[in-house]
Structure formats: C-alpha cells, structure tokens
Amino acid sequence: MSVFYPHPHALCLRGSTSSISASASMDCGAKLITDTQTNDLCFEGTKERVKKMFDQIELSVSSYDTAWVAMVPSPTSPKNPCFPACLNWLLDNQLSDGSWGPFHHHPLLIKDTLSSTLACVLALRRWGVGEEQMTKGLRFIESHFASVSDENQFAPVGFDIIFSGMIEYAKDLNLKLPLRSTDIDALFHKRDLELQSCLRESSKGSKAYLAYVSEGIGKRQDWEMVMNFQRKNGSLFNSPSTTAAALAHIQNAGCLYYLNALLEKFSDAVPTLHPFYIYPRLCMVETIESLGIGQHFRKEITSVLDETYRCWLQGEEEIFLDPATCALAFRLLRVNGYDVSSEPLNGFAEEHFFNSLGGYLKDLDAPLELFRASQMIIHPYDQVLEKHKSWTSHFLKEELSNRLTCANKHKEHIILQKVNDALEFPHYASLERLVHRRNIANYAVDDIRILKTSYRSSSFGNKDFLRLAVEDFNACQSIYREELQQLERWVQEKRLDKLKFARQKLAYCYFSAAATICSPELSDARITWAKNGVLTTVVDDFFDVGGSEDELLNLIHLVENASEHDI
Fold first, then answer.
1. Where are the beta strands (DSSP E) in 323-379?
2. What is the pLDDT of residue 7?
3. Which of 58, 245, 418, 531 is most buried, by the most CB atoms less than 10 A from its CB?
4. Distance, CA of 520 to CA of 112 (rounded, Å)
5. Calpha distance 239→271 (Å, rounded)
6. Contact between 514 and 431 (Cβ < 8 Å)
7. With 70 as the cut, is the pLDDT of residue 294 above it?
C-alpha cells in the first residue's frame, strides 16, 4: 500500500461503433476502424490499471496524522523530534492558501482542513521551525474559522473535542491564535458538554470514543484506560494520531514500535489508518462484482479471496477486530464457495456493537455489512445469522427513517442509498443484471471517507471501475438486443405470433433469462431459456383456451409417445 494525494483521472471511455452506409468513403471507414481500435486499447488499458490496483492499494496521505507523529519527542533526546522526516514533510507540503490537506478542498470539508492545518501549525511551533509556514497557516485558520460552527459542514470524528484540545495546546506552546475569545469560549462550552455526556454514559462505547480522541484530551486523559485498547501491532485503533498522542505522554514500547514500522513503510508521511490492507481489497472485489465486471478480473479476485481465506483461518486481527471487515470477508468467501463458519460473527452481536466505538458513533457501515452477511444462510437454523438479521434490519430501518428526515441528509446520501437498497432489495430477491444497473447508476466516484480526517483510497470511488462497468454494460445490452431480435425472427418464422389464443410473452421470457444468465458468452443458454418459455406459454394457453378436447388428447398422446430422436 502507498499513500497518495487524490487526483482526477483522464476520461477514457470507448465510443460505440456505428454502422456506415455502403456509399461511405474508404477514408471514413478507415477512420472508424482506427477510432474503434484506439478505444479498444483504451478499454484494455483501463483494465490493466485496475489489475495493478489489486497489488498496491493507494491511500491518501494524512497531514493531520503526520503532524501528530511529528510532535512526538525522541525517547533519548526529548528536545528533538522522534520522527524528523515527518516534520520536514510538513515544511515542504503546505498548500498555496496556507492550509494543509488534500490539494482540492471539498466545500463541505472545511472543518477537516482547519483541523489538519492547526495540527500542522502546532507541530511546527512545538519544534520552533517554519515561522513563515505557521504565519500562513494561522491566516488560513482565521479566515475560515466561521466554518467551525457551521452545522452543514462535515465534522471529523471528535472534532469539537480535538479542535478545542489543540487550541489549549497552542496556549501551552505560547502560540497566539488570531481568534476571538468569545468564539473560543463557545467552542470550549460545546466540548465540555460532549465530554460530560460521555462521562455520564460511562459505557464501553463512550470509553472507546474518549480513547480514540485522546490527542484532544491531552494531559487530562486517563492513559491507563486508553492503553486497554492497544492492539497486537502496538497501535491504538490502528490510528497513527491516537498512537502518537499516547507515545508523547507515556513512553510505551508498543506505540513506538508501531510508529517506527509505519515510518519505515511510508517514509515521511502517514495515512490516517494503518494497517489498511484486507478491507480495501475486499471492497474492490465487492465493487467490481456488484458493477458486473468481475469476469474481467477473475484471476485477481481469486487471489484476493484465497489470501483472505488464509487470514481467516489464521485468525488475523485485521479481520476479526473489525465488524465491517469480518462481515464482508464472510459474505464474499461464502458466496464464492469457501468453507467459512458464521461463528466468528457472533463476536459482533448487538450488545457488542452498541458497546463499541462504531456503536457509540452510530456508524452504519458495520451494521450494513452484518445485515448483508446475515442473508448468506446455507445451513438451517443458523442462529448467529438469524440474530444478526433481526437486530441489524431493525437498526438500519430506524436510522434510515431518522436520517432521511434530518435537515443534513444530503451529507450522508451515499451510505443512506446503500442502506435503502440493501433493505429494499435483499440478496435472495435480486436479479443480477438489475443489481448491476442500479449499482452503476448509484456509484459515487467522489466517495470520500472521514474518520478524524478525510481520506480516499483507490479501492472505492474509482472512476476506472465506473468506466469499465458502463462500457461493459452497454456492450452486453447490444448483445441482448441482437438476441431479442433473433428471437423475434424465430417467432415469426414459426408463426407463433399468428396464434390468436396464445399470449405474446417473448420479451418477458427473454428478460427473465437475460436478468439471471447475464454473461455475454451464455447466449445459447439465454436463447434456449426464452424459447422454452415461449413454447411453454403457447402450450399452456392451448390447454386453457385454444384447443378442443380431442386436440388436447392428441397432443398428450404425441408427447407421451415421442422418442428421444423426436425431441
């Protein structure tokens, strides 16, 4: 996996080939052939790019997390940074407007940019470098501070706590922020109300949340409680910023090991989440198959699933500590014929979810994946999946209803659309090609995820996936139209359209075939299915209204005495 700044990809769709008249010039014909060859090469080039993505998942760099890692003092020399490469990266990667973050600011992510910029300014101030960059950063914060109280903005997880905590840390560093005291007081008041609410609830979920936003609590944090959430890899929640904040306050060998490994991998800047290896690859598999282009990447998909299965059998922490990853892995493995038990999903029962960080934040991704997984029942009386289906469907319906009536529902339209589709079109009642069409129509190429800062990955919101899906769908539609025309000629040749008593159900019969046997190479199967449906309808109508008693008896006798050669 590598880190990258999101950038627009060049548009490279194949054009459809149109027919030309016999009188067209040879030059026009040559141009058409050349254009078609060029577009075919473009299509194949897109496929090759996607294939390479399976080997190297790209994840956007996080200025916010890099800044917190840069603030960690050296264990042997506290007056110097432990990770100077991160500090140098901050000095070299400020944007022209004075901010830090993605090159192109999303208009609804100003809070995210403010949080990243203030963290970077604090890191520079912590080590007394980058005076010019700090001045520009503070100017940006001053000019955009009104967005802090804008409820229409996307708020990173824990924003009110973390941003307030960074303002307090600025005071500790004798850094004067160009903000009005009334605005700061209002922010502190909002932070204090949230902290009081968490402390009153005192649930496992609220404790996980307070641990996750530790950098915003700082010296007041109960670090002993926080370390209960440390993972085998030494991290806290796989979050570089949380882990760095812990290491800055308590010298923990596990935290140091995790951050050293992180910088060894990413050199001088870190993502907001690591490890991030299994889940994005599973997302790629799920997306590619749901868009109807899985046949182009069968080798790559099999490789991902084989590796996931090995991790499943080995009890890999990246799978079994995250409900969304575990549920997605289970569903994809089971639907592709791997022998996996639903028992590991028992660890994400309803009470577990609501006592977790995701449950406290009312995250929809994990319940949605668990709901989809609950439909993969192959053994009778699978109590684990039945229980998941019950509570997740209830939770998702309730949240969908609540959030659709919210004034800011547009902020969550991508996940709400996914929830609505999952509830309205369960797996067992879906026609494959219609699912592909719906997923293509709803696919979001600007799919930005947000934790404590926003991030993007090549495994979701990818324009190449959509290009291939649209082109493949249109190519298949062309094949389907040709098959339907062939069947219409067959009906006319056999004069089935002249039978007044028979319903004309050709389109219906062919649709049922194309919607379920959709692979382009299965043309013979679709045509045979449709013909069988048409003939069955004719015979049914003949028995119901078209034939006399003698004709019906003769037909029965003919069928009963037909030889294999006659059939």
1. none
2. 31
3. 245
4. 45
5. 9
6. no
7. yes
Q: What is the pLDDT of residues 299-340, one digit of tens each?
A: 999 999 999 999 999 999 999 999 999 999 999 999 999 999
SS3 annotation, 397-451: HHHHHHHHCCCCHHHHHHHHHHHHHHHHCCHHHCCHHHHHHHHHHHCCCCCCEEC
Burial class of residue 360 in the structure, from the number of CB atoms within 10 Å of its CB (0-12 exposed, 13-18 middle, 19+ buried): buried
Query: How far is the C-alpha of 460 from the C-alpha of 451, rounded, in Å?
Result: 16
**Residue 96 main-chain phi, psi, to 5 deg:** -65, -25
List the structure tokens of 305: 């699933």
Query: Residue 446 and residue 452: Cα distance in Å, rounded?
Result: 19
d(Cα 212, Cα 232) in Å, to the nearest integer? 16
In one-letter notation, the amino acid at residue 53 is M
Which pLDDT does position 564 carry in this prediction? 62
Where does the pLDDT of residue 209 fall: very low under 50, low under 70, confident under 90, or very high at 90 and above? very high
Q: CB-side exposure of 387: number of CA atoms within 13 Å?
A: 14
Q: Read off the amino acid at residue 322.
A: D
Residue 407 has pLDDT above 80, yes or no: no
**Is the omega angle on the peptide bond into residue 84 within 30 degrees of 0, that is, cis?**
no
SS3 73: strand
